[in-house]
Design brief:
Elements: H1 2-6, H2 13-22, H3 38-44, H4 47-61, E1 66-68, E2 71-74, H5 78-81, H6 85-95, H7 102-113, H8 127-133, H9 135-152, H10 181-190, H11 194-211, H12 218-225, H13 229-238, H14 246-282, H15 290-293, H16 296-314, H17 328-332, H18 334-350, E3 357-358, E4 364-365, H19 368-383, H20 387-390, H21 393-406, H22 414-420, H23 422-438, H24 446-452, H25 460-472, H26 478-490, H27 495-515, H28 518-531, H29 533-545, H30 551-563, H31 579-592, H32 609-625, H33 630-641, H34 649-663, H35 671-680, H36 688-708, H37 714-718, H38 723-736, E5 742-746, E6 758-762, E7 768-775, H39 782-796, E8 803-811, E9 818-819, E10 826-827
Parallel strand pairs: 7-8
Antiparallel strand pairs: 1-2, 3-4, 5-6, 6-7, 9-10
Helix pairs in contact: 2-4, 4-7, 6-7, 7-9, 10-11, 11-13, 18-19, 19-21, 21-23, 22-23, 23-25, 24-26, 26-28, 27-28, 28-29, 28-30, 29-31, 30-32, 31-32, 31-33, 33-34
């Protein structure tokens, strides 16, 4: 903002460009920095320095390091480049038929390479059409892009075709047409480099091919080329059809053989399915015969065939498809479908459970008897809501073994089975959870993963089992320890269990801290944060300080692991922390994860350790801000006075004030206000935000009546000679619609002599809204109106503590539009 004031009277163009180059990287979606005032600086330039300013800006935007190898625009000034499109169009319009200067070519190169264009709007004519219509500009820009691509390309071979000169995410402004054949042929003869001559030849060939003239013009083109073997060879590549190579012939022959084999196999499969369908329709009882279902060879394999048919038909997994057994009626008839259902209900009772074989590298081997048994249990459970209660103890034990031994995923019928038959089911689950906990295979954790999910309820009989396993021994896998923390988060612990877990967590935390195992330390800090967050925060600070030079890195890893809002190890744990503990944690986070060192990203990115730590720091502060009460308010004020927060002291005081406002109770209603609410359904206005909301509703009502009312004072308002008459009319209209909730009056004196046009005050609380009124027919420019909004209303008129809201009103008195300051386009 200093630069916009000092330029051009006290800042030269080179000095301004130096300031822009030294400025910090502009963050995306944040309205700050030189890109957002570049139009203002452009307008302030006299005609002569504009070329120097735009030329200098172009050099900044085209200077490495680039945003990426494929996006050759300055990484630091990418946002600035996206703002130059309207200025480039104005300069091209002003160029007329004159020769384009070099700085304008460089400016257009920047526009081509910018990924986004701000302020381009609906142009007529567009910048592309303007460049295309100016033949010399089109030609010069094309060759400038060729030279820039050759200079900065990371490819081994330079471009030899015009299509190889492109911009990732950008906009190509030049183009070729029949009218360009003259200069293209001249450049093909005169260019010194073979590569450049090949580029022009490729453009000529593209134009001729598009017009269907390539074959007829081939001889003339050979005469134009003359004795240039490189170009002649390039031309020959375009004209004759490519020769058929032996490799292509062999490939086609092999593909034809494969197609024949595939067709033969398809016919064989169809015949096999027809034969199977005829057989099973004739004797559907085989599917439910215990003697044939008991073993695979005797007949269980037929259930597999029908299951595969259902899997293809429903596009479900093989163990879920049996639930849609009724669809078998489409292909095999109702008798086969019913027999399949009965056979699936029978097979899991007849087949002994088999455990999945786990290979090294997390490979697994299932058997079809396992899959069919598991699918049969799911089918039976889906058919009958009271299925679990009707099972015997032995059947319940058998069903849970099938599920545990298969180890695919937690079945939806398991919780009901646990509740109905705890004596038979819980011992099996206890062994399975213990095996998962003791295994060093991170992926073998179906039960642990299920019970660690925050949205899943854990059956009551399983609570004590999980606590016993967590207390008994430590898992050798850190990932499973983290699942254990999340499980504890979901448990309903009694006092004794919480004390025992806390004691074990502290003991193991001390052991791992002494051994220097940071990953284990962070996990047990997470467990302690769930059980007793105040103790966890007490242990966190000395552990971080003990890292000496690596304290910052350790803090980032710990905060990101514990409190990252996208995947927190601790979800809701901080809600139980005391205010002093939260204050200490905020101070610790801001000490080692300084906001002024935050990473600024442009575009898509993968968050790293620092990004997660920044989000976690904000999460900790948010928890403190949302904690009601005077203690949290005093903690925010104390943090603001701490030297660590010197750069953000004012912001922290503002947050503390906002917190006090949120925590404070609204003024009580009087008896009269209660009666008015009962009679008129109108609530009293007790806060500034409510007053602004009511006022905006009143203004909308006034506007609606002016436009759509049968009887309206619109002609009277249009004849208002000055703003004084308009302001008086608006005050009258607001008071007319107030219904006792508010009162509008004119020009109360405030600090430094600044006077709002209209003050609207609540009749039920000490709060006001300032209203700035502008007569739309008095010749105000768009920039003057914007300055009035920013300076008068938002700054001068909102200084009193009881006036924090304002409204900006522009009245329309006739056919009037405004012009945008930079582009000159109209706006209503």
């Amino acid at each position: 903002m200093f630069a916009t004031i000092l330029y051009p009277d006290y800042l030269t163009v080179p000095q301004l460009l130096t300031l822009i180059d030294l400025s910090q990287l502009v963050r995306e979606h944040v309205v700050e920095g030189f890109p957002y005032v570049i139009n203002q600086l452009y307008e302030a330039s006299d005609k002569a320095p504009r070329s120097a300013l735009l030329g200098g800006l172009s050099e900044l935007c085209l200077s490495p390091p680039f945003a990426a190898d494929y996006q050759q625009i300055s990484r630091k000034h990418a946002e600035l480049a996206s703002r130059l499109h309207p200025l480039a169009r104005l300069e091209v319009l002003a160029l007329g038929a004159k020769e384009p200067p070099p700085w304008l070519i460089r400016l257009l190169m920047v526009v081509e390479r910018a990924e986004h264009h701000h302020g381009s709007g609906d142009e007529n004519p567009s910048l592309h059409n303007l460049v295309r219509a100016h033949r010399q500009l089109n030609r010069s820009l094309f060759w400038a892009d060729v030279g820039f691509s050759r200079q900065h390309s990371k490819q081994v071979n330079p471009p030899t075709h015009w299509a190889q000169v492109h911009f990732y995410g950008g906009t190509q402004l030049w183009a070729f047409g029949p009218a360009d054949l003259g200069w293209l042929k001249n450049d093909m003869r005169c260019r010194e480099s073979d590569d450049e001559r090949r580029i022009t030849l490729s453009a000529i060939l593209a134009i001729l091919h598009e017009q269907g003239r390539l074959k007829s013009e081939a001889d003339n083109l050979r005469n134009e080329i003359g004795e240039q073997p490189v170009l002649l060879a390039t031309l020959d590549q375009y004209l004759p059809p490519p020769p058929e190579r032996d490799m292509d012939t062999d490939h086609e022959r092999e593909m034809a053989r494969l197609r024949r084999e595939r067709a033969a196999r398809t016919e064989q499969d169809k015949a096999s399915w027809v034969e199977f369908a005829n057989f099973i329709r004739a004797e559907p009882g085989r599917l439910r015969d215990p003697a044939q279902v008991r073993t695979w060879k005797a007949g269980a394999f037929r259930l597999k065939h029908l299951t595969l048919w259902l899997q293809k038909r429903t596009d479900n997994q093989d163990d879920e498809a049996p639930r849609d057994w009724r669809l078998l009626e489409e292909g095999f008839g109702p008798e086969v479908a019913a027999a399949y259902r009965d056979g699936m209900k029978l097979i899991w009772r007849l087949m002994p459970p088999k455990r999945t074989i786990r290979q090294p590298g997390n490979g697994v081997t299932f058997s079809w008897t396992q899959i069919l048994s598991y699918g049969g249990i799911g089918l039976e459970a889906a058919e009958d809501p009271e299925w679990a209660e009707k099972l015997t103890e032995d059947e319940a034990r058998l069903a849970v073994k099938h599920a545990c031994f298969l180890g695919r995923r937690y079945p939806d019928w398991m919780d009901g089975l646990i509740v109905a038959h705890p004596q038979a089911v819980v011992p099996v689950i206890r062994k399975e959870i213990a095996a998962e906990w003791s295994s060093d295979n991170e992926f073998y954790s179906e039960f642990l993963s299920r019970y660690s999910h925050p949205l899943v309820g854990i059956p009551i009989p399983i609570h004590s089992i999980l606590v016993e396993i967590l207390l008994a021994r430590e898992s050798a896998c850190v990932a499973k320890l983290e699942r254990g923390v999340r499980i504890v988060r979901n448990l309903s612990l009694d006092g004794a269990q919480r004390v025992r877990l806390t004691r074990v967590a502290r003991k193991r935390l001390a052991d791992h801290t002494a051994a220097g195992r940071d990953d284990y330390v962070m996990t047990y800090l997470g467990l302690l944060m769930v059980l007793d967050p105040d103790q966890a925060i007490e242990h966190l600070a000395p552990w971080i300080d003990g890292a000496d030079k690596n304290a910052g890195k350790r803090t980032q890893e710990a905060l990101g692991n514990l409190f990252d809002r996208h995947d927190p190890l601790i979800s809701g744990g901080l809600e139980a922390a005391s205010v002093p503990a939260l204050q200490k944690l905020v101070r610790l986070a801001y000490s080692h994860v300084r906001p002024e060192h935050d990473i600024v990203h442009q575009g898509a990115y993968s968050p790293g350790v620092r990004d997660k730590a920044e989000r976690a720091r904000d999460t900790v502060l948010t928890v403190l801000l949302h904690r009601p009460g005077a203690d949290a308010f005093r903690a925010m004020r104390a943090l603001a006075d701490n030297p660590i927060f010197e750069l953000r002291a004012r912001r922290f005081r503002e947050l503390a004030r906002e917190k006090a406002e949120q925590d404070s109770e609204l003024p009580a209603w009087t008896e009269r206000e209660v009666v008015d609410f009962e009679k008129q359904w109108i609530a009293p206005v007790k806060t500034g935000a409510d007053l602004l909301r009511v006022l905006m509703g009143v203004l909308d009502n006034i506007n609606h009546d002016l436009i759509h009312g049968d009887v309206t004072s619109r002609p009277l308002l249009q004849r208002a000679k000055d703003e004084d008459e308009v302001q008086n009319w608006i005050v009258e209209q607001i008071n007319h619609r107030s219904r006792g909730r508010l009162h509008a009056h004119r020009e109360a004196q405030v600090a430094l002599g600044d006077k709002p046009d209209v003050i609207v005050a609540s009749t039920a609380a000490p709060c006001e809204v300032a209203v700035e009124v502008k007569h739309g027919g008095m010749g105000w420019t768009a920039r003057q109106l914007e300055d009035a909004l920013r300076s008068q209303l938002a700054v001068d008129y909102l200084k009193p503590a009881h006036r924090r809201y304002g409204a900006f009103v522009i009245t329309h008195h006739g056919a009037r539009t405004w012009r945008r300051p930079v582009t000159g386009q109209p706006m209503d």
